[in-house]
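This part of the workshop introduces the protein records we will be handling. To make this concrete, we reproduce a full record directly below.
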Amino acid sequence: MDKKVLVIIPCYNEEDNIVNTVENLRAECPEVDFLVVNDCSTDSSAELLRKHHYPFLDLPVNLGIGGNVQCGYLYAVRNGYDVAVQMDGDGQHDPAYLMEIVQPVLDGECDMCIGSRFVKKEGFQTSFMRRVGIRFLSGLIFLLSGHRVLDVTSGFRATNARMTAYFARHYAIDYPEPEAALAAILADFKVAEAPVIMRERQGGVSSIHSFKSVYYMIKVSLALIIDRLSIRKSKEGRA
């Protein structure tokens, strides 16, 4: 590959998953670089990263998933990567499908390609209630932008250099995936989806569960509406 690709792997208390995640990535895609961003894990994640000599950033304060991934985007910009890929550290994202989301970006078909489990509806489809929430957010984004994104909460996504630079400057803090998709559309970037098969979390506990799901839906919905009011569709992304 003549293009530089960086895989950003956010990590918070992923001692059960992070080694398998990285080793699977290295086995499937040895030609890409990767960077683990450790967000002040309180388990043995940092020790495992050091033991295996993986390249990683050890954040001095907990920034949450948004700040974590944004650090990765900043690293990608400063080191001249052509494509940045976000891939979760919990084992849900199969690196066998990494090029499915990278290739459309490399071919210039889109600025951001999201790995979607709902295009072909194969593999792990998440719980019924989460699917309801995802459909609601998908409908809200369509209402606010006129653009349909099926898997709005997917954290498996690839961005070109312009989109990466935009996210390095503008990125939501909490649960940022839906906001990032809407912000990209409103900034006149082209957002597309590619079918992927995802797996269930391989270990540990998700950060979104029980009553947090209600908080998540309310917060993200309000954030999307505020984004629509504050972000004007422009050519800023092309600058």
Residues 233-239 have pLDDT under 50 and may be disordered. The two ends are 27 Å apart (CA to CA). The longest helix spans residues 211-230. Helices lie at 18-28, 45-51, 64-78, 98-106, 128-145, 161-169, 177-186, 211-230.
